[in-house]
Amino acid sequence: MSTGRLEGKVAIITGAASGIGEATARLFVHHGAFIVIADIQDELGAQVAASIGEHRATYKHCDVRDEKQVEETVAFTVAKYGKLDIMYSNAGILGPIESILDMDISDGFDKTVAVNARGAAIAIKHAARVMVAGKVQGSIICTASTEATRAGRAPAAYVASKHAVLGLVRAAARELGPHGIRVNCVSPHGVATPMVCDVLGMDVASVEARFSGMGNLKGVVLKKDHVAEAVLFLASDESAYVSATNLSIDGGLSTMI
Predict the structure, then answer these.
(1) Residue 158 catalytic?
(2) How, if at all, do strands 57-61 and 246-249 pair?
(3) Would you say the pTM of this structure is higher than 0.85?
(4) What CATH number did the domain enclosing 69 receive?
(5) Between the CA atoms of 192, 196, 197 and 200, what dihedral angle is there, to the nearest 10 degrees?
(6) Rg of the chain (C-alpha set)
(7) Per the structure, how many domains does the chain have?
(8) Which residue ranges does UniProt annotate as crossing the membrane (predicted)?
(9) Which residues pair with 12 in a beta bridge?
(10) Distance between first and last Cα of the chain
């Protein structure tokens, strides 16, 4: 049953077949939204859409590195639901865990930047185009990271890509504000998503213990639902005058280092 915070709104969520994207998709629908799940994990994405219900969620294959596929996903959404209110550019990769001394530029740096930064730029571009054309005062949200403002232990390519996401958000917010479009990002600390667990070769409990030990705020373990709740705030009218903001979800970590 809808609680109305996103009642009747239409959203695209990239990378929504699992992890933070999936949690956000389910939360958005709970709050009354219609969702297009955009991902390259076809089987998982279709399963998530089916479990939510065809009336509220649709899966669309979309590789965010390919501008044509993103443009087609936006056009598909508008054709199906009549508009686009929310774009959550969430698809991302951690990339290889490697030293900058040994970095594979094409498969490491270029691929990581292509998914994380280029993908966000393409998502912002095509979401904004239809919002401006439809005179929709929409909300565009990107997933950045605590690494967007610091350089902790993450690989250089990942750090660079997330710094780029934050810059894109700020530049887009400046340009799109006159159209009534808000652009923000969320910057979570480490979350035990399937991707992170797979890259680190650790189970959920071990990943959570590792990242919680780094944090300043004790007694809380960061979950994907915490990030989804922050995205919901930025997508909803409760943040109607919030733009160009980087919402850190890190228990104060980024301000303590």
Answers:
(1) yes
(2) unpaired
(3) yes
(4) 3.40.50.720
(5) -130
(6) 17
(7) 1
(8) none
(9) 36, 87
(10) 42
